[in-house]
Predict the 3D structure of the following.
Amino acid sequence: QVQLVQSGAEVKKPGASVKLSCKASGYNFDNYYVHWVRQAPGQGLEWMGMINPSGGETRYTQKLQGRVTMTRDTSTTTVYMELSSLTSEDTAVYFCARARHGFDPWGQGTLVSVSS
Amino acid sequence: SYELTQAPSVSVSPGQTASITCFGDKLGNKYVSWYQQKPGQSPVLVIYQHSRRPSGIPERISGSSSGNTATLTIRGTQTMDEADYFCLAWDNDTAIFGGGTKLTVL
């Protein structure tokens, strides 16, 4: 079945970077964009950006431009999201999601905690 | 910047119809999708392209859109429908989520 499996929880200090992974399986990896969405504790969903696994093209939300980088490894059908210069406001659950008709399915989420 | 507005909460009695709305400028001209999220779980797509249901989503869940409003309707609401619901639309190649509506079934 179509599945996105994300890497485990991370604890980081302010100013550090974090790199999360999202491994896709059960479908043709090249054919569907993958998006990243985050959710701060008790808050709503925030779109971060997307990557085309086929050509590697990316688009990021303006808010995170310069701090976020999305990449992919077609040999392992894995998408990565790196966020730099972390602050406490980056504490959130980070989701990847395949874009087909809407975002479907979603990964299980990765909790990133930023604390000194 | 483009914004989508949702009421923070909606309450409904079991068996009744719940309507969850999403407001945005000319929203009816944009493709809207809806997501259900239960506590501690990942969101699940329940409606895409305004009114289409993914496989596995029951027919009692429906969507519509017109003018500045998109509406998610749940008929015969059950306790299992209690969740947060988020609308999503695209504006200038950017995905915008509504703030979410907490549906309480009581």
About this structure: Residues 34 and 87 of chain B are 5 Å apart (CA to CA).
